[in-house]
Write a structure and sequence with these properties.
2 copies of one chain form a homodimer. With 468 residues, chain A is α/β, with parallel strands linked by helices. Chain A has 3 domains: 131 residues, NAD(P)-binding Rossmann-like Domain (Rossmann fold); 145 residues, Rossmann fold (3-Layer(aba) Sandwich), CATH 3.40.50.261; 158 residues, 3-Layer(aba) Sandwich (Rossmann fold), CATH 3.40.50. Helices cover 39% and strands 16% of the residues of chain A. Chain A is elongated.
Chain lengths: 468, 468
């Protein structure tokens, strides 16, 4: 799959299927993005010739210049085989087919899909699609056939996202942008006639710029589920692979049939299988974000399930306890001595109203420095394996600097720390203070607990296989 | 509890415990809010006299004028009994005690708390607190002792929120404001020395401006759990009561001990009990928002569990199927005839690529009018009880008018309809279009499914008791 590297960083591209009359045609949208937004030399192609956006249109791939590294094909399904053959003859190594009308529409489409896979293999073309929305690499490449204003583009970062559903992928991009989580690439694999999720997992497994691989999968072809988990197993010791599997309920499974017509063959790849191979299995979209985000920070390991919790609101501690309990994490009560040690470093006036049993509630009277000093003490206790900071910044003594200050306390310790701060503009300085200093911030208490759960699951797997 | 009405709409107020030297003192924050933000005549009180913000300070409640309807007390716990007695002698009927240092700090505090309850009862004072953050009524009253910039204030609306945790309440206000869900009041009951969650449920049950009552409860005193559900049972036929119970896990329950020191007596009030009395039991904060929001729209009933789903992305349909399955909702496949009827009204060019089995996937090629016309057909089918619209507006044919247009289709039918649209600024027109026309919008697929689950639970209860 050497073509993948070129596909994600091509020097010259072509778009087959532009319209000289309709600027909203998907091919035209892709052409404008590649040529004007990504600044790549891009040849538009249409049998009728003419010009698009002032650029001359080539009548065929064959008639276009020879330096094309990536061709994006957006023509009706029945024309795709001949265009792909031309690409092969021209030794273009990377092709994305965004056209629909293949296996997702029944038997005739399925046979057309086999045909293009055969052509791609014959010519050594690396093919993504058909029935996909394309590939997005921040600052490099955007082949999505959707107007720019419709799709958020997260900043460059270290999460690679691979999705069998274009809609799901778009939704994640919106969410990643809103949460300021950077990505290294977003891949819509569509019907996966040739390259599939496993190929991309292997590719990103080798890419040092990627810290986390996130995949949305509805189904695997016969035997391909095992390939997938085997590939993950090799990568997991180096970087986490997070998977959401759509169609896990019977109803959802039935729904996948009309979508990408995934085969039922390896439907049985289950939570147990994911766990066995060290794959982090997200059960819903909230967990997807929690795990992808926390692992993008390369968090410290969590060598047991015991969490020390620090809040400024008793109710938050209660909610966190319930959530932690759901995930099998514990909050062991601190001993009298531990409680006294933490109480001692609080501002004297508030020592009497703060509570230190675990969860600890410093109350709305606490200040930044109380929070810092109690955390410093707590992280020294060998009865906990991680700290959870619940920080609704409503307490008047909490300043916008608390994120950076507390993160710097955490840096001095070996235990993993995650925080909860609501994702509101007014708290951006706090969130940024945490995150620039390596502490992931969840935007709900639940998400912060899920982050710890992800870290614990991964750490336990690595302990079990003797890697930590 | 006639004092509650006055408490939530007082004509004249007093704040006991202002500082003449420290403007950040909680009493001063409350004074400024009442006097300057709510525009209420407000008397500041401090034994030392002087002035605050240019207003003369009275040396005691006794020395203040006689027209006070609500007094907010923010003095150290040990002084609260005598101040409260003065309020009683002065015939002030409503008092909020924000001071901490009562049952939450142990036996001495608990006995002080009994004392103030006794005084309140003796003088027929309606008392909220102690250890609470106060009461917020949009456009009327804000006694929260937190600086305004720290706490969002949702617009006026029809959800009444009652919380045993101040932090939890603040967090909901942030979330309600961010989601543009209006509230009628937000009450922090604190330690509930006298008035408790049940009193407020009864009060809001009688208030026609309230469509939904939302309560966060950690525990009930001995016997009070039964009072609560009995009160709910009387109200539920008229309006939904949504409850999140903190401390449901063993760990969470332990955590409540150090928080509001709730008694374990009625800890056993469980999901089964809530269901039996028609209370909508939210299991986490996501469900809280889903249920509170959807019921604020007074949605149509859902007479069975069958959902017809309409999306522009197959992946969304798959995710929704999984979520629905979790909640016991079904998406029965449409018959060949039903599928043909929906297909027939699609734009001819896209009839071949759309899928109508349920979930229906109109694909990214669909336009507003396709969506409208297919929904119109679907809502006629007697094989479904509700419609779920999944509308990530990435498809170029979907305009910002789609919300209002589709909501108007829904208006003509008896079935309940909810939508999913991501809560992003760029889609505000779509969301507003739906919501101004009576369709609640979830900001995740999960939330939209939870909304249907809430409607179905309530409808089923009302069916079971013969009310619909």
């Amino acid at each position: 799959m050497t073509g993948l590297k070129t596909m994600l960083n091509p020097k010259v591209t072509a778009v087959v299927g532009v319209s000289t009359s309709n600027p909203f045609n998907p091919g035209n949208v892709i052409f404008r993005k590649l040529a004007f937004e990504n600044g790549l030399p891009t040849y538009p192609v249409n049998p009728k010739g003419g010009t698009v956006e002032g650029v001359p249109v080539h009548k065929s791939i064959t008639a276009a210049p020879d330096d094309i590294e990536l061709a994006v094909i957006s023509v009706p399904a029945r024309f795709v085989p001949s265009v792909l053959t031309e690409c092969g003859e021209k030794k273009i190594r990377s092709v994305i087919v965004v056209s629909g009308g293949f296996s997702e529409v029944g038997d005739a489409g399925a046979s057309l899909q086999s045909e293009i896979a055969t052509i791609a293999n014959k010519y050594n073309i690396t093919l993504v699609g058909p029935n996909c929305i394309g590939v997005f690499v921040p600052d490099v490449l955007d082949t999505f056939f959707l107007p720019s204003e419709r799709v958020a583009r997260p900043r460059k970062g270290n999460v690679a996202i691979i999705s069998q559903s274009g809609g799901w992928l778009i939704e994640r991009l919106e969410e990643f942008a809103a949460r300021d989580v950077g990505i290294s690439a977003a891949i819509s694999i569509g019907n996966a006639a040739q390259t599939n999720v496993t190929d991309f997992v292997k590719h990103f497994g080798q890419d040092d710029r990627v810290n986390v691989i996130l995949a949305y999968v509805e189904g695997f072809g016969e035997g391909l589920g095992r390939d997938f988990v085997e590939a993950c197993k090799k990568i997991v010791p180096t970087k986490p692979v997070v998977v959401l599997k759509g169609g896990e309920s019977e109803a959802g499974h039935r729904a996948t049939q009309s979508h990408t017509s995934s085969l039922a063959g390896d439907y049985a790849i289950s939570n147990a299988a994911f766990n066995q191979y060290g794959v982090i299995h997200a059960t819903d979209e909230d967990e997807v974000m929690a795990y992808a985000k926390v692992f993008s920070f390369k968090p410290k390991f969590m060598l047991g399930s015991r969490v020390g919790t620090l809040s400024v609101s008793g109710g938050h501690g209660v909610i966190a306890s319930d959530e932690a309990s759901y995930y099998g994490l514990t909050m062991p009560p601190f001993s009298k001595e531990q409680q006294a040690a933490m109480r001692e470093v609080m501002t004297p006036a508030y020592q009497g109203i703060a509570s230190f049993r675990n969860p600890c509630d410093l109350t709305g009277s606490a200040s930044d420095i109380d929070y810092e000093q109690v955390l410093e003490k707590m992280l020294e206790f060998d009865t906990i394996d991680a700290a959870l900071l619940l920080l609704l910044p409503y307490a008047p003594g909490i300043s916008l600097q608390i994120g950076a200050r507390v993160a710097n306390v955490a840096k001095r310790h070996k235990k993993t720390v995650v925080a909860y701060v609501p994702n509101l503009n007014k708290y951006e300085v706090i969130i940024r203070g945490f995150e620039l200093n390596g502490i992931a911030v969840g935007d709900t208490i639940e998400e912060a607990v899920q982050m710890l759960n992800g870290i614990r699951k991964r750490s336990k797997y690595l302990q079990d296989i003797g890697k930590i």
